[in-house]
From TrEMBL:
Pathway: Amino-acid degradation; L-histidine degradation into L-glutamate; N-formimidoyl-L-glutamate from L-histidine: step 1/3
Enzyme class (EC, first level): lyase
Major place of residence: cytoplasm
Protein name per the record: Histidine ammonia-lyase
Location(s), subcellular: Cytoplasm
Reaction it catalyzes: L-histidine = trans-urocanate + NH4(+)
Keywords: Cytoplasm, Histidine metabolism, Lyase
Lyase is among the record's keywords: yes
Family the entry assigns: Belongs to the PAL/histidase family.
Post-translational modifications reported in the UniProt record: Contains an active site 4-methylidene-imidazol-5-one (MIO), which is formed autocatalytically by cyclization and dehydration of residues Ala-Ser-Gly.
Length: 507
């Protein structure tokens, strides 16, 4: 396994994508001096004997309570244990590992006051495949992702559970088998571990990466649907999109033209086509999917910035031995990014479902009703379209902006929160729904093109059809439909369809 080496503030989206997909991560050696200086600053601050929030005081509404030196280790352990109050299913291992790497990247700046051995524990857990079991519900996305990050920190001190090679084992046992001793937390370290936006950011990044795959897949299935309906490629003419000037729209128009280039199906109706204009679901693909691309790029920029920053509190400035309390833990930027990704995923599925509906309607597509050679005796794609419609409606409900909500917490000390955590966490379910819609479109579009035999589409789109037909034969008479959808969804999940649209201008 290759390894991503994280420098302070320099990780790219490609780095985070690789970590999400299983690449290990550790800090670059260049970060060691800043981390050590930050830990040394904590000792000097403590030596002054004055109350400093998060170091020798209580937390939140209890910040006015000064803690004596002999109780500082207990204070940090207590905050981890008391805040590990999450509920719900565990976050998926790939996202949990991404969260741990994001926490490492935050510590790389030397502004959190953690010791080198604490950083080394996180690195060792990643390297040895020890992933804390982190209940996914319980954060409101402000004052940091306190509950989920506390479960991560608890595993580091030997409390709770970890996933190891697919098995769930007690954290203390997992550490011992890996040759690691449970961490004893130093001053501020418990707070530094559980304060920050890494849970929300990890989930949002995972949603972004899945949305990118869906986006590229939808370009292929959309082009294939256009071919099945013998739609025009004139709406993809570069001159149209240059006049509107949106970068995403221009890129998508170029991509769709490239995907359809050389198609014999398209060439067969360049002359004498009675249809003057195609439905919007075909004609407006550059406008809709281009806007989706612009949105994903903006969300990616926000998340890349967040992932490279520091979001715990208070922040330690070793050059002046100051601990400054602020609000970097407030995850509003992540919440907005997650909402943008949710809208993008929703629209990818929405326009794809309209293409499915168009294909099964003979009045619009010119194809046999419900894409079956013997309609009436066979129902063909009648109910798969209904399934697609159901999935799109679920995503519409989930796409409501999380960031416009807020609820006061911690005795009104934390009186405005971002809701970034569940705004980001919903993206996985939305992506799964959209994947189902695109799987159905993939099947329907390939079936529609089958009716045009012996004419073939472009080389790229024929590759897409061949990929599917290796798993799913053409639908003649009705058969058990679910396995066909599952097979198409597996190809999409594996990125094999998206890879066909890995084109210039398309991230």
């Amino acid at each position: 396994m290759t390894e991503i080496t994280l420098k302070a503030g320099e990780a790219t989206l490609a780095d985070w994508r690789a970590i999400y997909l299983g690449t290990n991560a550790r800090l670059d050696a260049s970060t060691a001096l800043a981390i050590a200086a930050s830990a040394a600053a904590i000792e000097r601050i403590l030596a002054r004997g004055k109350p400093v929030y998060g170091i020798n005081t209580g937390f939140g509404k209890l910040a006015s309570v000064k803690i004596e030196a002999e109780d500082l280790a207990t204070l940090q352990r207590n905050i981890v244990l008391s805040h590990a109050a999450g509920v719900g299913d565990p976050m998926p291992v790939p996202i949990a590992r991404l969260m741990m790497a994001l926490k490492l990247a935050s510590f790389a700046h030397g502004a959190s006051g953690v010791r080198p051995e604490t950083v080394a524990m996180l690195e060792a857990m990643l390297a040895k495949g020890l992933t804390p079991v982190v209940p996914a519900q319980g954060s409101v996305g402000a004052s940091g992702d306190l509950a989920p990050l506390s479960h991560m920190a608890a595993a580091m001190i030997g409390v709770g559970d970890m996933f190891v090679a697919g098995d769930r084992v007690p954290a203390a046992e997992a550490l011992a088998k890996a040759g690691l001793a449970p961490l004893t937390l130093g001053p501020k370290e418990g707070l530094a571990l559980l304060n920050g936006t890494q849970f929300s950011t990890a989930n949002a990044l995972a949603g972004l990466f899945e949305a990118e795959k869906l986006f590229r897949t939808a370009l292929v299935t959309g082009a294939l649907s256009t071919e099945a309906a013998k739609g025009s490629d004139a709406p993809f003419d570069a001159r149209i999109h240059q006049l509107r000037r949106h970068a995403g729209q221009i890129a998508v128009g170029d991509a769709l033209r490239g995907l359809m280039a050389g198609s014999a199906i398209r060439a067969s109706h360049l002359e004498g086509d009675a249809r003057v204009q195609d439905p919007y679901c075909l004609r407006c693909q550059p406008q809709v999917m281009g806007a989706v691309l612009d949105l994903l790029r903006q969300a990616g920029h926000t998340l890349a910035t967040e992932a490279n920053g520091v979001s715990d509190n208070p922040l330690i400035f070793a050059d002046t031995d100051e601990a400054l309390s602020g609000g970097n833990f407030h995850a509003e930027p992540v919440a907005f990014a997650a909402d943008m990704i949710a809208m993008a995923i929703c629209e990818i599925g929405s326009i794809a479902e309209r293409r499915i509906a168009m294909l099964v309607d003979p009045a619009l597509s010119g194809l046999p009703a419900f894409l079956t050679p013997l309609p009436g005796l066979n129902s063909g794609f009648m109910i798969p379209q209904v399934t697609a419609a159901a999935l799109v409606s679920e995503n519409k409900q989930r796409a409501y902006p999380a960031s416009v909500d807020s609820i006061p917490t911690s005795a009104n000390q934390e009186d405005h929160v971002s809701m970034a955590a569940h705004g980001a966490r919903r993206l996985a379910a939305m992506a799964e729904n959209a994947r189902g819609v695109l799987a159905i479109e993939y099947l329907a579009a390939a079936q529609g093109c089958d009716f045009h035999a012996p004419l073939q589409s472009s080389d790229v789109l024929e590759s897409a059809r061949a990929l599917l037909r290796a798993k799913v034969p053409t639908l003649g008479e009705d058969r058990h439909f679910h396995p066909d959808i599952a097979a198409a969804a597996d190809l999409i999940s594996a990125g094999q369809v998206a890879a066909l649209a890995d084109l210039p201008g398309i991230a």
